[in-house]
């Protein structure tokens, strides 16, 4: 069913970004309602939002032109999520203290669903302990705060206060809308991307992993309510919103990072394409060419998943495998050998599976079942994996 987002717009110069946010949400298929503070209408006309959303943009509580019902209550009942973006210091302070003196703040009080606040203001105002206390209070009341970014502000100051990027705001909305939060209170660790093994300061060996599958799992785990740590090899992907990301390079670095986070985790998903071998003796200086051939001596890297399997206590462990032949047989061997609770296997010969694409086609192996999944987007598969892992 189509979800409805209520966007509350208050009077920061970042109002213009709220127009883009509205447009992007509509393109993603959401129904969008907008309410503005009266001051925000001095930056952008309500007509801009109304034309985009095809709904009346309300900014006056006692507007004679709105339908004859108690609109802040009916709107609060209609929408699925309420995001205030940009949220000024004034609106944040009002919301934290239950002040309801206009349509936006009244509707906020009447709304029972997930609430998101995206502050935007000058750094000195943002750092002011009064505002920080009010933000902390809103967090305690269960609001999700999308931290502002650091950058050049409209007042030419440089610092924290820029409204978060639009894709970050959308990620927060999507996370808020996912129900039920089946992983609430759980700690999930995901590895992603390739590892790179150094040859010298300018060269390395690596593989084609894009990190997309692992990043999709980390995002989905956050959406399901988990506290998520992503241990990532080098990728070109943006760090997922709401996820703690630890960046590593080599297999050994990934192992060290995993040793730190593993004991305290509930679910671990090893989606990284860890290099099986590394250069025995990487050079600290650039290797010069000489002669017609050259050989590199490779030694085995630690098998991180096998290490986690050996040291498993309460954790549920999910591995990945990529195979080209005897897919299920090879995968079953890995599942048992590495003491996994679940193994997701890609058949590289299948159309839609593999590196750098946004889809995947896999089989999921558990102790008593092998399930062939249909072709899915990596986002859909991420949800399916986590749901299954949660049921084990
Ligand atoms: N893996 C790991 N450490 C390694 C190699 C792999 O933790 N040094 C993990 C991967 O993250 C994945 C799983 O093991 O979850 C399977 O990886 P794969 O490369 O398919 O298996 P290998 O055991 O390396 O077998 P082979 O390459 O011989 O097929």
Strand content: 15-25%
The ligands bound in this entry are: cytidine-5'-triphosphate
What is the structural class? Answer: alpha/beta
Helix content: 25-40%
- Terminal CA distance reads 29 Å
Helix and strand arrangement:
Elements (H helix, E strand, L loop, with lengths): L3 E6 L5 H13 L3 E6 L9 H8 L17 H8 L2 E7 L1 H8 L6 H8 L4 E5 L3 H5 L1 H12 L3 E2 L3 E4 L5 E5 L3 H12 L9 E6 L4 E4 L2 E3 L6 H12 L3 E6 L11 E4 L3 H11 L5 E4 L6 E3 L18 E3 L3 H7 L5 E8 L3 H11 L4 E6 L11 E2 L1 E5 L2 E4 L3 E2 H14 L1
Parallel strand pairs: 1-2, 1-3, 3-4, 4-5, 8-11, 8-13, 11-12, 13-16, 16-17
Antiparallel strand pairs: 6-7, 9-10, 14-15, 17-19, 18-21, 19-20
Helix pairs in contact: 1-2, 1-8, 3-5, 4-7, 8-9, 9-13
The structure holds cytidine-5'-triphosphate.
The site of cytidine-5'-triphosphate (CTP) has 14 residues, from helix 11 and strand 16.
Explain the overall architecture.
The chain is built from 13 helices and 21 strands. The protein is an alpha/beta fold. The strands form six sheets. Strands 12-11-8-13-16-17-19-20 form an eight-stranded mixed sheet, sandwiched between helices. Strand 1 (about 5-10), helix 1 and strand 2 form a beta-alpha-beta unit. It is elongated, with a radius of gyration of 25 Å. The relative contact order is 0.09. The structure holds cytidine-5'-triphosphate. Cytidine-5'-triphosphate binds near residues 251, 301, 304, 321 and 322.
